[in-house]
Design brief:
Blueprint: H1 18-32, H2 43-51, H3 55-62, H4 73-79, H5 84-90, H6 118-124, H7 130-159
Helix pairs in contact: 2-3, 4-5, 6-7
Length: 162
Amino acid sequence: MDTPPSPSREPTPDGRSAAERFGALVRRLAAEAGYDMTPGAGGQVALANAIGMSRSAVGRMLNGVTLPMPNQFEKIAGVLDTDVRNLLVAAGVISRDSWPEGVIPDVRSASSQSPLSPEAYADSWGITDPVIRQTLVGSIEMAIRLQRAQHTEHTTATSGAP
């Protein structure tokens, strides 16, 4: 029985997998951030140390073999001085339209409104596949942000504030 390909390795319309697109973007951003990505120059090791990932994990990521874990995207974006949105789009986690450029979302947990965090919901449903889990958690977080924005707009409209 054949194993289905990982979603991060399935080709996209441009013929490259999400992992390949992501690796190319991170490699370019790392070079722009001053990491010498020439083989043997130490830039890959320095990048791994800055991100807090193993050198081999960074190598697989840069070579388009794997995507990072969801909890690593924000750190990678910070180290490379880029918007996490760019990384999520390149990784195929979200579409460009699902998170408009220039919008800074509130990514805090909704634990005050709900007894479970998005990760706990994924745990409670037994979602263990990293890509499916990342998609579910991202969808829940986006729904929370949209609900908060709608609530803010409604409150502003009914209070008469500008």
